[in-house]
Amino acid sequence: MAKKTMIIGEVRDGELRHVSFETIAAGKVVADGGEVIGVLLGEDVSGLAEQLIQYGADRVVTVTHPDLKSYTTDAYQQAVLQVIDLEQPDGILLGHTAIGKDLAPRLAMKAQAGLVSDAVAVELEDGEPVFTRPIYSGKAFERKRIKEGMLLATIRPNNIAAMEKDPARTGDVSSITAEISDLRTTIQNVVRKAAGGVDLSEAKIIVAGGRGVKSADGFKPLQELADLLGGAVGASRGACDADYCDYALQIGQTGKVVTPDLYFAIGISGAIQHLAGMSNSKVIVAINKDPEAPIFEVADYGIVGDLFEIVPLLTEELRQILVSQ
Questions:
Q1: 267 known ligand binder
Q2: Chain-wide mean pLDDT for the chain?
Q3: What's the chain's Rg over C-alpha atoms?
Q4: Angle, in degrees to the nearest 10, between helices 73-87 and 98-111
Q5: 288: Cβ–Cβ under 8 A, 6 or more apart, which residues?
Q6: Which part of the chain is the Electron transfer flavoprotein alpha/beta-subunit N-terminal domain (predicted)?
Q7: How many whole angstroms separate alpha carbon 164 and alpha carbon 90?
Q8: What is the DSSP secondary structure assignment for residue 120, as one 8-state letter?
Q9: Is 253 assigned to a binding site?
C-alpha cells in the first residue's frame, strides 16, 4: 500500500551528510510507490534541495529560521512538528546519527507514533515495511514492524545503499518559515574538537588504533594510512582513556557504531565493548603482536607483529599499488 514518507535530511557545515541519501533509499521501500518528501531545516538550505531530488526524493520542503542554523532539540522538534501537521505523512525516516537519535524519540512521543531505531535494513512483507536492527551489541538481529499509526525509524549509516544520483531528475521545492518560540537552549558557538576530514560514522574505510599505539605520536602512521586510502581514523576507548586521541574518535558500545567496507584494527585487543561498535564491518583487518588477541576471532585477515613495523610497510606497499593504477 502506497504511503507518503517523509525524510529528514541532515546538513553539516553547509553540506548534506551521505546518510540523507541512504535514508531516501529506505524511504522508497517504505513508501512502496507512494510519495517520498525530503525535508531540510536550517537558516538557508534551499541550495541543497536539488540533491535530495537527484537521489530519489519526489519533492522537498525547506524549513527556514535563524534558530535552525545549528541543531537544538527544541527548535528542530518544533519545526518538524509543523511540517508533520502540514504534510500528514504515514512515515518519517531519519539517519541514526547524534541528531537522529535525539530527535526521533521526541517526535515519536509528540506524534504518538511507533519508533524503530538503528535499522540496518528494510523490506516489504505483505505490503508493510519490516525493519532489521541489531541487538545485544550486534550479536543478534531482530525484525520490527509498526502495526498501527505513523511510523518513525532511524537508519544506521553505511548499511542501506543510496540510489544512483540522477542529475536530470526534477521535483517541486517549496519553503516554509518555521514558528519557533520558548527555546531553552541556544547555540552561541560551535568548537570542533576533532580535526576535519572524512566523517567517521560515514567513512567507507576506517583505520583504528588502540592502546598498542602507545602514544599520540603512535597515531601518526595510522593517519598516514587513512589519508592514503581516503579513510578516517578511529580509536578504541582504551586509546582515548590514555589520552592518545580525542573521544570524538572513539568506536564502541559507548562511542560511535560504524560499518565501513574496510576496518583496520591496529593495536586493538578486541574487548567486547569495542567489537559492539565495529563487528559488522564488511572486511576487518587486525594487526596485533599478541596472537591470542580476541580481535583475531572476528577479523577476516590477521597480521601478528609489531604495528610500528607493519603499518609503514603496508602504507608504502599500498601507495605503490595506487600509483601504478
A1: yes
A2: 93
A3: 21
A4: 50
A5: 212, 265, 266, 267, 268, 269, 295, 296, 302, 303, 304, 307
A6: 5-187
A7: 25
A8: S
A9: yes
321 annotated as belonging to a binding site for a ligand: no
Residue 146, annotated as binding a ligand: no
Q: Which residue has the cell 542529475?
A: 167
Residue 206 CB partners (closer than 8 Å, separation 6+): 200, 226, 231, 232, 233, 234, 251, 258, 260, 262, 263, 264, 278, 281
pLDDT at 285: 97
270 is in an annotated binding site: yes
Which parts of the chain are beta strand (E)? 5-8, 11-12, 15-16, 36-42, 59-64, 91-95, 114-119, 121-125, 128-135, 140-144, 151-155, 172-177, 205-209, 232-235, 262-266, 283-288, 301-304
210 Cα distance to chain centroid: 22
Give residue-wise pLDDT tens across range 188-221: 887 776 555 678 888 999 999 999 999 999 999 9
Q: Which regions of the chain are under pLDDT 50? A: none
Residue 82 among known ligand-binding residues: no
